[in-house]
Amino acid sequence: MQGCIEKKGDVMKRLITVLIVTLVLGIAAGSLFAAGQVDSKASDYDYVVGFNNMWTDLEFFQVVEEGLRKAAEENNIKLLVGYGERDGQKMMSNVDTFVLQGADLILDFNVLSEVGNTMTKELAKKDIPLIAIDGVYEGAYFYGVNNEHVGRTAGTAAAEYIKDTWNGQIDYVVHIYSESAGPAVRKRNSGASDVIIETFPNFNKNNVVWIDAGSHMDPINGRSLATDFLTAHPEAKHVYFQVLTDLPASGVLLAVEESGRSNEAIILSCDASGPALDNLRKGKANSWLGSVAAFPELYGENIIAYALDILGGKNPPKERFTNNVVITHENIDEYYPK
C-alpha cells in the first residue's frame, strides 16, 4: 500500500513538473514573438530578406531603406531591418538575428570590406546569398556604383574646369577617402586622379595626396582635414579636392571659404545626396562644382529585382551597377526638379 502511494506521488510530481516546463516554454515563446525573434507570419511571404543598413539618420541611407521597404511590400517579401553603423560586432549580430528569423538572403550596406568578407563566408556555409551595397565583399553579389567609372566621371568634370578656368594649371589633387571601405571603393578617388594625370602631362604625380578620413565621413572631419591641408600649402593656387561622399565634401567647402581660397580650390564628390543638392540649388555657383549621382531613390526596386533573380535561380551576373552622371549647378533641375 505504501509503495502504491509513493508511486502515485511520483506520478503527481512528474505531472506538475511537465506542466511547469510547458508553462515556462510557452511564456518564453511568447516573449520571443513579442521581441520579433519568432514570426508566425513568415510563411505568408514568398521570401524573407535581411537588410543591414548603415545609419538611421543620414538621408542617402533613409532613401535606400524607404525604397527597399516599398519594393519588398510590392513583391510579397518580408524585410527585416537592422543598423550596423560600420561596427563589425553590430553587423555580425544583426546578420545572426536575420538568419534566426529565416532570412533567405542578406543585404549589407555598411561598406566595411574586412567584416563583409567574413560575413559572406559564414553565410555561404548556410547557403544564404549576400548582396553588398556599394561595397565589395569577396564572394558576394554587388549592387551599386561602378567605382572607377564614378571616379573618372568626376575627374573628367574637374579636368574641363581646370582647362577652361585655370588654363590647365593644377597643383594638387587631394583625395579625402576611407581606407576601411576597401580597395574597390578607393577607385572612386583614384579614377579621378588618373584622368588628371592623363589630361595634364605636366602635372606632378607626386602631388596626388591621400587623406584617410577613417569612419568619420562627416562635415566636421571634412572641414578639419581640408583646413589642415590648405594651411600647410599656402602657395597652392590650383587644388582639386576629390571627396568620397557628400557629407565630408560640405565640410571641405566650409574650409575653402573660411580660408579665403574659393578661387584656388574645386571640389567634386559622390552620391548627389541632400548636402550636395542643397548647395547646387544656391543662386550662385561656388567651389563645390558637383557630385556624381548614384540615384538612391532607384536602389530599392533595383535591389529587390536583383534579389528575386538570385533567389529564383536565374544566375544573374555578380555585379549590377547604377547609372552615373555629375549633377551640377547647370543640370540639377533636369535630374532633380524642384
Name its key features.
338 residues, alpha/beta, Rossmann fold, 2 domains, six-stranded parallel β-sheet, six-stranded mixed β-sheet, 48% helix, disordered N terminus
Characterization of the model:
By secondary structure, the protein is an alpha/beta fold. It has two domains: 44-145 and 297-322, Response regulator (Rossmann fold, 3-Layer(aba) Sandwich); 147-293, Rossmann fold, CATH 3.40.50.2300. The chain is built from eleven helices and twelve strands. The strands form two sheets. It has a six-stranded parallel β-sheet with strand order 2-1-3-4-5-11, sandwiched between helices. A six-stranded mixed β-sheet has the order 7-6-8-9-10-12, with helices on both faces. The chain is elongated. It starts with a helix and ends with a helix. The model is unreliable at 1-9 and 11-41 (pLDDT under 50).
Number of strands: 12
Roughly what percent helix?
40-55%
Order of helices and strands: HEHEHEHEEHEHEHEHEHEHEEH
Low-confidence stretches: 1-9, 11-41
- Shape by Cα distribution: elongated
Overall domain count: 2
CATH superfamily of the largest domain: Response regulator
Distance between the termini: 92 Å
**How much is the radius of gyration in Å?**
26 Å
**Looking at CATH, which topology of the largest domain would you report?**
Rossmann fold
Q: Strand order across the biggest sheet?
A: 2-1-3-4-5-11
Mean pLDDT: 89
Major beta sheet, specifics? 6 strands, parallel
The total of helices stands at: 11
Which architecture name of the largest domain does CATH use?
Answer: 3-Layer(aba) Sandwich
> Structural class of the secondary elements?
alpha/beta
Q: How much strand?
A: 15-25%
CATH class label of the largest domain: Alpha Beta
